[in-house]
Specification:
The chain is mainly α and 116 residues long. Helix content is 69%, strand content 0%. The longest helix is centred in the middle third of the chain and has 28 residues, at 56-83. It starts with 10 loop residues before the first helix and ends in a 6-residue tail after the last helix. The chain is elongated, with a radius of gyration of 19 Å. It has five helices and no strands.
Length: 116
């Protein structure tokens, strides 16, 4: 048998982890470029009473993502701590949390004035 042909910890788990991290990266990338998304609106939307309406769904999804993913991750870790079992977090949630934390870390490192 060649190396890498067995499932091991689970190639499906690794793929779920990567998919979760990629989802977080995509959501945060869209949020970082929300002004560009709003600028892509047609002229009649820009001149209306709600010029940033194209950016609203991105802002809503990002706000929900930033609240829900850490909460689900923390609940899974706390629940495993209470029950005394090893931490068991679904691979997608762990990947999404890692992607979110990685984005937050790079954002703070590249923009240190945010902290002060």
């Amino acid at each position: 048998m060649q190396a890498g042909t067995q499932g091991g910890i689970g190639s499906a788990s690794v793929m779920r982890f990567v998919f979760g991290a990629a989802t977080s990266a995509l959501i945060m990338f869209l949020f970082e470029n929300i002004q560009v998304i709003s600028d892509l609106a047609p002229r009649f939307i820009k001149e209306s009473s709600m010029p940033g309406i194209l950016g609203a769904p991105v802002a809503l999804v990002t706000a929900i993502w930033i609240v829900v993913i850490p909460m689900v991750f923390a609940v899974a870790v706390i629940r495993s701590g209470i029950t005394g079992r090893r931490p068991w977090v679904r691979a997608y949630v762990a990947g999404a949390f890692a992607g979110l934390a990685g984005y937050a870390a790079t954002f703070v490192i590249s923009n240190p004035e945010v902290l002060f």
